[in-house]
User: Fold this.
Amino acid sequence: MGQTVLVCDDAIFMRTMIADILSQAGYEVVGEAETGVQAVEQYRKLKPDLVTMDIVMPDMSGIEAVRAICLEDPDARILMCSAMGQQALVVEAIQAGAKDFIVKPFQPSRVLEAVQRLLG
Amino acid sequence: MDSDKYISLFVSESREHLQQCTAQVLEWERSPTAVEPRDALFRAFHTVKGMAATLGFARLTELLHTAEHLLARLRDEGRPPTPGIIDLYFRVVDVAERGVVLAASGEDERLDAMVLLTELESAAGPQPTESPRTRSSVTTPPEGRPIRVQLRSGVAMPAARAAIVLRCAESLGEVMAVDPPPEQWLADDFDGAFSFRIRTEASGDHIRRVIMTAGEVTDVRVGGEVIPRPKVKRQVKVDMDRLDRLVRLTGEIVVARGRVAALIDELKDSRLEDAGHEMSRLIADLQAAVLSARMAPVGEVYQRFSRPVRDLSRQLGKSVRLELSGGEIELDRVILDELGEPLLHLLRNAIDHGIEDPTDRVAAGKLAEGVITVSAHRERNAAVITVGDDGRGIDEEAVKARSGWSASGDGSSGLLEVIAQPGFSTAEAVTNVSGRGVGIDAVVHWARSRGGTTELATQRGVGTTVTLRLPLSVAIIPVLLVGVTGQRFAVPLGFVSETVRLPTEERLKEIAFRGERVPILETLTPGRGKNGDPRHWRPGVVINVGGHRAALAVDTLLGQEDIVVGPVDAPRGTPAWINGATILADGRPVLILDPAVLIQGEAP
Assistant:
């Protein structure tokens, strides 16, 4: 069985795209979240091997979600999905516990490279 | 273990490191607050120390360790070096170079550096924790192991990537002294290079592996060790003798090719011709490749200049700036190895005789600081190296008064001949620098012995420039073969302007060549002009040495060929214009002419 992934993004387009890239590479997308609050709830419930996390989401930002998740599970493997110009936010997310990041626009090879790095 | 092999590697590598050290100390002197020269020195000393310790050279190891210790103290205390400390490091490099030589000949214990050691230690001041002698570089020092990280250039969000690196490192132990600090990583000029210290018991390899997992990391240096990046050029050190053997053998193949080519011409078989051409092309490529392996950049020699120029100008109370350019120009290793001395001669002359005292310069409306330039560039098949100064120029009147020489027209070339007389000097007092003979005779002589030329241009009050023109290779040179009464001679093609017909009229001493009167040289054909030739003309070769032309009379022109120049023990009585000898493709010997001497013999 493939390793499990939770995809968090407020845009369906992005969720679909990331889910496609990952499932085509043999990972199993077990859940999706559109808000930071949902992300934390889903993580608790699903205990996925990997989380992809958008930075800007309603309710609770991606960074706050990272902080909340890592408080409960410091080993959580969270991959930040960021856009150009968000470097300061990415640094903040990493300090909060995110393990790696990718930059939009996503290239499938870059995404998989980062995922493989995290999942070993 | 093959200890000779290790010792010769130790010597060559240590020399390389120590040579660079001099440049680093100079750089450090210029900008005492700069971190890089100090760290570069530290790395170099550390590397050499590691080798010396492995080979058991205790004295040298102790010296380098103490030198390294002071650098570490300066770094940790954020202390810039005093001029005294800079001088100490010049001495460390000198003594260490001597130490390498002593150690290599099994005489490490003869290295006496007690005074220097004491001075280094007192400059470091008392050690707050433990004595420098007992500190081992193997156990983890209390301040943690230094780590340098380089991210891939052009990496997305370097600050975020660097933050991941730090987090990976933190999994191994406490991280401190991050430089530049993380809050500066968001600046546009952060290039992904940073360093920090980590308190950990993990091995260097393990630290490196963990940091690499952060991704986008191209280089990690732990402690003083260097992990080469994969794209760095790989090099192998080759013994010069082996290289020479390759060059000699290639030379012999080139000669043999000539023999085969002659046979192929006779046989007139098109298939053989095709195969022959292919072989010739490959041999030419091989020759070029082998020769290029002997080439090294002039910059290697440049490294040796900064220090003597600095020392000498200080000693003479002059202010001199040395400007070096064209360091990338490549020359045959053999020439390059010999080039240092002649160039140092010229630099000494420039500082001692050329550049004026600062007060005189200011009085003459110049900047107090004199400028000496050494530059190199490539001409067709020669490397041209010039040493110029903006000093007082050569006083031609004084030279005349002393030598009885009188300048005619463009006097500079004649001037060179006069001042190149051994022992010639206009210096009123012989200084211990360069007063006893200007030393330029040695330079002229050397250049000539290598098939090169020397030119001098000087203008009073403006400066003097000496130009050396040197062949790119000493091993194989193209020549024009000429015959005189059955004997064959080779004229290096680099000196040949063209071939001409010389009239066989009586008492003709010169010909018109491109609007210039060019003297006819009868060196090879004494008394032949008078006897007449049924052709009414005979062939001549116009040779050109630094703009001076002469037409060398010969009996026949035999064509062009590449010859291998071998060392020659000239028997007593060999004319000075014979420079060497070689064996041709057909196995017969040929004498190589020295155009510079031929032309000189003609000069009044």
Observations:
- DSSP finds 18 helices and 21 strands in chain B.
- The first strand of chain B starts at residue 145 and ends at 151.
- The radius of gyration of chain B is 31 Å.
